[in-house]
Amino acid sequence: MKKTLSEDELKLIESQLQHPLYYIEYPVNVTEDWWKDGEGKKQSMNDMGLDHLKAAIKMVEKNIEYLQNSYFPADVINELMPLVRQKLIQLRNIYSVKIKI
To answer: How far apart are CA 13 and CA 20, in angstroms?
Structure first.
C-alpha cells in the first residue's frame, strides 16, 4: 500500500516541480516521449534537435544526482525519482534513434 504524503511533503514536491524538475508532472508524468520546457510548453522529443536532447539528458542526469544527494524525506525522493528516471530513459531512447538516422 502506498503511503500518504504529508502536506509538507506535497508542498516540497510542488516546489521541485517548479524548478529544477519542471519537465515532469506529479503524480502522473508528462506524456511519454514529450518534453515540458521551463515555460510549461510541451513538445515531442522527436522534434528536438540532437543538441537539445543532449542538453536535456545532461540536465536530467544532474537532477538525479541532486535528488540522490538531497536531504529530502525518503518518501519525497521515492515519489519523484521514478518520474525523473522515466524521462531520462525516454530522452536517451529518442537520442539513440536520432543518431542512427
So the answer is: 11
pTM listed for this prediction: 0.94
Phi, psi (rounded to 5 degrees) for 49: -75, 165
85's CB contacts (< 8 A; 6+ apart) are 64
Instruction: With both helix axes pointing from N to C terminus, report the angle between 7-18 and 74-100 in degrees, rounded to the nearest 10.
Output: 30
The rounded distance, in Å, linking the Cα atoms of 91 and 53 is: 7
Task: Using the Cα atoms of residue 96, residue 39, residue 17 and residue 62 in order, give the sign of their dihedral.
Answer: positive
For the chain, the structural domain boundaries read 7-100
* Torsion angle (degrees, nearest 10) of CA 79, 13, 90, 62: -110
Side chain identity, residue 37 = D
Instruction: Count Cβ atoms below 10 Å from residue 87 Cβ, excluding itself.
Output: 26
The rounded distance, in Å, linking the Cα atoms of 71 and 74 is 8
Residues 14-51: tens digit of each pLDDT: 999 999 999 999 999 999 999 999 999 999 999 999 99
